[in-house]
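Summarise what follows for lecture notes:
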Amino acid sequence: MVERSNSMQARHADVVILGATPGGIGAALAAARRGRKTIMIEATPYVGGLMTSGLGMTDIHSLDAAGSVFREYASNVLNHYIETYGPESEQVVHCRQGLRFEPSVAKTIFARMMGAESNLETIVSHELVSVEKEGDSLTSITVRPMGGGSETVYRADVFIDATYEGDLAAKAGVPYSLGRESRDEWNEEYAGTLYQNFRTKEVLPGSTGDGDDRIQAYNFRLCLTKNRSNQAPFVKPASYDRNDYASLTEDVSAGRVKGFSEVCNTVMIPNGKTDTNNYHYCLCSTDLPEENQDYPEGSWAVRDRIVKRHREYIQGLLWFLQNDEELPEWFREDSRQWGHAADEFEDTDHFPPQIYVREARRIHGEYVFTENDARRAPGLGRSPIHYDSIASGDYGIDSHATRKREPIGQNIALEGFMAIGFLTEIYQIPYGSIVPQRVDRLLVPVAVSATHMGLGTIRMEPCWMQIGYAAGVAADVSLATRRHVRDLSVDRLQDELLADKQVITYLKDEPWGTETSKAVQYFGARSFFPGYEAHPDEDVTVAQASQWIAISRLLPGGKQLPCLPATAAILPAGADMGPKAPKQEPTPEQYWTDQPYLTAAMARRWSQVAARVMNAPQGEWFAGEKETVTRGQFLNALYGFLRTARQH
């Protein structure tokens, strides 16, 4: 990485990415691995966003809906702890298959993954100054060192805005939203003004569902420890204001708060450290509602002021918990067990450098992802199906508070602080949500096109990382096919993503990463399955196979697909067919009622004709001694023919 522009004032790359967040890293790895010259530019001195800045407890339920680059990252984390401490070590147990990690480990893993790519260059400490467009097409961006210095122009064929704030999209003229939509705008049940008891999920009076411009609260994800030998003390900031925290004394007296970890949520990660977050049941924790309103559209000077306020607020909170004399001694003693992990964030006084921007701008894209896209679709056994799915998400919709403590919250709720994980399903993320309106040659995988409620589940780093990866693959497909990212073949993009083991359709009964899973996921995005099960090991009926062929003729590459033979009793050429009395044989209806399942012999005949007319290899899809064909086998063959045709 370099920290100053070189003497060259204009540079060109295939793909230029703004923002070295996990979403940006995912995009950069995807593009660079496909041979594209890729430059990633970051405003801060740090790479990795929140994942290297304290967020060590991965916000997904499991790896089931994750694929490609995030699985690779998690595998690298697990291998790090195995190789460093041994396979039976407590560190391996605490890393939970790579889903929990220390900030320094995340930094090491990302550096290793990025350093392996010769086509990738990362430039840090540079800010966006301006953009150039030809008509609607973004053609270049100009950046300069954060501390001042000469400007450099970067031209590219595809740009990717992976910033948390959507800065490049905004500068390029992409329309966007801030704040919260009302219930009525997108028919979202939990949108707008809401007071919820976070424990019971009961909705309280005052929940009018009105929209507004409020931004959910930010904080920092701290890395703390009880290990005295690796502890740096909490520091009282010069701006300390006890009034910020005084309400906690009453909470403690009333029994609403019973210790340090009921103010600061201390989730354990390896080596006795924590990912310390806001405690969701405490009304005065590390979040700072209302004081981030100017951040999304603010200059860097404005943002720095807001970051400083949040940092000093949290420093003051930690000092208060250990030292305020109105807190009981037992509480202060409990708090004094904790300190910053001394071997983390050593260049920033053990405090994470990146503020947690949970939400900022949300672009207006070709599709707007809403609360309803992550809930059970009426009439289906799953979330809504998206033809253009590029990734899957698995985190309950939530939002942090948008208002400070107030009487209407009844010492139970902060307005805007809500979660409906009990209603959230594993969902698909459509390509249209990262394709902005009005501006071409640009993809936006982090500040995606979503409502406040929709972003409430997408906004998790593993999800952003996978969407970023899809954006990087889309950039490559755009370049390879010489089509704008807006106009590229979604099917071709999905072929590439599935080849890289991205999960575009989650299914309970098809293991991740198999050959059949590619076909099943692809057709899952074509509404072949009404729920989360494809039943790939069940025998396929001729009725189902015929229907699938008919639908597939409408898909790119499928117009030449032949019908199934009208009978399973066709003799090979050269065999004498007579004597034969067709009128004495069963009717077609009776014939297929008696023989409802597709036979392997019939499937082989069909695939031989399909391979010939589509100029494709026949494959061994129906080889073996089994007389019937499974659903997975037939879909695998069908997908193979479509994919081959699209590559021609």
In short: Residues 1-6 have pLDDT under 50 and may be disordered. Residues 434 and 448 are 5 Å apart (CA to CA).
